[in-house]
């Protein structure tokens, strides 16, 4: 049985030290790990602040089963870790079920986890052959097979462009439709690679990466639920608490940036400011500008492939009228 410490080593959570630092000084209580995965970030948060407990959410049944083993295998987690199988936009519902009125913060590590990529049968990988699945919640109705083999060409082109900024979206969509039926991830990857001009294949990583990302986002409805989930987390966070988001592509980053900015401008509730991202000036009227999000160190980007595109934004709940 893998221990939590072992799992965090295997799966290389992105920006682990920065996440631990972010939550080290929040007030005691419950931090929601809205994308629990294999618990690496949660372990770091618990180690950084002995006054915190973790509520882990994940729609992947395998991740929840593993988390339950973590609780049983190590007594120190029994009173500090609770997990529920739920998509993160159900945060409010889960908090009500557990009679939790306020949280000390929340973490969202967006995208697909390393274990999901490594298991070919989950269908996320363009390197390992598997079925066209890509469902984070394996009870979900829509799969990658539905998207790849049933969407019309215009729908495919639009979602590939919108979900991954792929400049050859139209060519890729046409190639996918022409190659149907596509039966596996490697077959799909071959079709995508062939549709991209040769010079463009030589830069920017695997040529199929963006298309796979776009299809995964469509299957799991990731962008549509993100904004609402972040709003729930910010609303539930107590004064002094923080909400942190690790995003991996421009679509996610735009949504996070917008939700945070909207929260800062909302004078009807506590003012939120971000220690890593936003600057403000004290006064009756507060002016703000948004800086670039925090990125992983060069060393981490070199040692962890998933970290290369990561961007960290953090927002902190403060009292109305509090100056900085």
Characteristics:
single chain, 324 residues, alpha/beta, Rossmann fold, DNA polymerase, domain 1, 7-stranded mixed beta sheet, two-stranded antiparallel sheet, 9 strands, globular
Number of strands: 9
Shape: globular
- Mind describing the biggest β-sheet? 7 strands, mixed
Stretches where pLDDT is under 50 for at least 5 consecutive residues are: 1-10, 277-290
Report the β-strand fraction as a percent range: 15-25%
Assign the CATH architecture of the largest domain: 3-Layer(aba) Sandwich
CATH superfamily of the largest domain: Vaccinia Virus protein VP39
Write the CATH fold name of the largest domain.
Rossmann fold
Which structural class should the secondary elements be placed in?
Answer: alpha/beta
CATH class of the largest domain: Alpha Beta
Q: Give the helices and strands as they follow along the chain.
A: HHEHEHEHEHHHHHHHHEHEEEHE
Integer average pLDDT: 86
Rg estimate, integer Å: 20 Å
Helix content: 40-55%
Strand order of the largest sheet: 3-2-1-4-5-9-6
| First-last Cα distance | 47 Å
Q: How many separate domains?
A: 2
**Helical run tally:** 15
């Amino acid at each position: 049985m893998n221990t939590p410490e072992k799992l965090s080593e295997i799966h290389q959570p992105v920006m682990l030290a920065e996440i631990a630092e972010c939550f080290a000084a929040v007030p005691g209580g419950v931090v929601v790990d809205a994308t629990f995965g294999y618990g690496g970030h949660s372990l770091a948060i618990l180690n950084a602040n002995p006054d915190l407990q973790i509520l882990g959410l994940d729609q992947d049944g395998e991740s929840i089963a593993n988390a339950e083993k973590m609780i049983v295998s190590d007594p120190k987690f029994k009173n500090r870790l609770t997990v529920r199988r739920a998509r993160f936009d159900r945060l409010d519902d889960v908090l009500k079920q557990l009679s939790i009125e306020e949280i000390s913060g929340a973490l969202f590590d967006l995208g697909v986890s390393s274990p999901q990529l490594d298991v070919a049968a989950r269908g996320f990988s363009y390197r390992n052959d598997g079925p066209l699945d890509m469902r984070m919640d394996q009870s979900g109705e829509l799969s990658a097979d539905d998207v790849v083999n049933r969407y019309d060409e215009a729908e495919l082109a639009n979602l590939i462009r919108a979900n991954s900024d792929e400049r050859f979206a139209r060519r890729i969509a046409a190639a996918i439709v022409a190659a149907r039926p596509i039966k596996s991830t490697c077959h799909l990857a071959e079709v995508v690679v062939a549709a991209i001009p040769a010079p463009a294949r030589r830069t920017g990583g695997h040529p199929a990466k963006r298309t796979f990302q776009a299809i995964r986002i469509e299957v799991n409805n990731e962008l549509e639920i993100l904004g609402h989930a972040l709003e729930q987390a910010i609303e539930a966070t107590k004064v002094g608490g923080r909400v942190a988001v690790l995003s991996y592509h421009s679509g996610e980053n735009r949504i996070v940036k917008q939700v945070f900015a909207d929260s800062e401008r909302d004078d009807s509730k506590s003012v939120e400011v971000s220690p890593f991202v936003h600057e403000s000036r004290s006064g009756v009227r507060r002016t703000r500008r948004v800086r670039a999000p925090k990125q992983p160190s060069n060393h981490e980007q070199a040692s962890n492939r998933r970290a290369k595109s990561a961007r960290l934004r953090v927002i902190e709940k403060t009292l109305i009228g509090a100056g900085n």
